């Protein structure tokens, strides 16, 4: 995943904007529709560095990440994370001069191999991601000295996802092939990632079919390597409203 909020503008990005305006395609998707991306994101996804990571979604979409929007552009998803008291930026927000704005600093800077090394929940709705983060923040435990760390604050990351072959729980054949290789007692996770006991293959299939609960199965250690061996790189879940 790549964070989208950096504000530094490179020479390459300036060239992309200039050329896009001259060609009449600035802030448009390749299909001619208005882009769903903001100005920063529109430029960012067209840089060489981004395409080296995500794949050339404009020219060779079949070899790029599958996580794109209805226009075929890289889809921005949002991850909300709770903020402890010691992570809140002092004096953030608008200052008394009415001109200066101090933003909330990101509480950490990496997902892969860092604080978030497992399953990462995202949403296409930024406010939904923020609401989840703020709810979770209210249950943050005290620190080791007994000082309260709970807040009602959250930080939302805008992210891209590089997944060339995401596992889709709605693909019944893909699910069955993996379940058949897991035996008669399949471990699942509890809501908070702890041990949740075992289920039968039939119950496991029900979990994956329910959409909301498929992560209880697909995040277990025995499931991920087997889906990985089938070249599946990620989990695509559409939840019901």
TrEMBL record:
<protein>
    <submittedName>
        <fullName>Uncharacterized protein</fullName>
    </submittedName>
</protein>
């Amino acid at each position: 995943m790549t964070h989208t909020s950096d504000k530094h503008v490179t020479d390459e990005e300036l060239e992309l904007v200039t050329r896009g305006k001259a060609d009449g395609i600035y802030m448009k998707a390749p299909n001619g529709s208005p882009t769903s991306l903001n100005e920063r994101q529109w430029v960012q996804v067209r840089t060489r560095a981004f395409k080296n990571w995500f794949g050339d979604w404009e020219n060779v979409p079949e070899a790029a990440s599958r996580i794109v929007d209805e226009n075929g552009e890289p889809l921005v998803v949002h991850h909300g994370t709770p903020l402890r008291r010691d992570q809140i930026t002092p004096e953030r927000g608008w200052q008394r001069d009415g001109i200066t704005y101090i933003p909330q600093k990101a509480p950490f800077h990496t997902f892969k191999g860092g604080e978030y090394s497992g399953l990462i929940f995202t949403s296409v709705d930024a406010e939904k991601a923020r609401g989840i983060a703020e709810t979770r923040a209210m249950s943050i435990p005290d620190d080791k000295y007994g000082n309260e760390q709970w807040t009602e604050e959250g930080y939302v990351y805008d992210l891209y996802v590089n997944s060339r072959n995401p596992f889709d729980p709605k693909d019944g054949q893909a699910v069955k092939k993996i379940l058949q290789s897991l035996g008669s007692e399949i471990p699942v996770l509890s809501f908070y990632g702890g041990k949740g006991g075992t289920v039968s293959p039939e119950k496991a299939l029900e979990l994956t079919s329910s959409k909301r609960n498929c992560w209880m199965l697909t995040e277990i250690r025995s499931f991920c390597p087997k889906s990985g061996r089938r070249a599946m790189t990620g989990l695509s879940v559409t939840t019901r409203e």
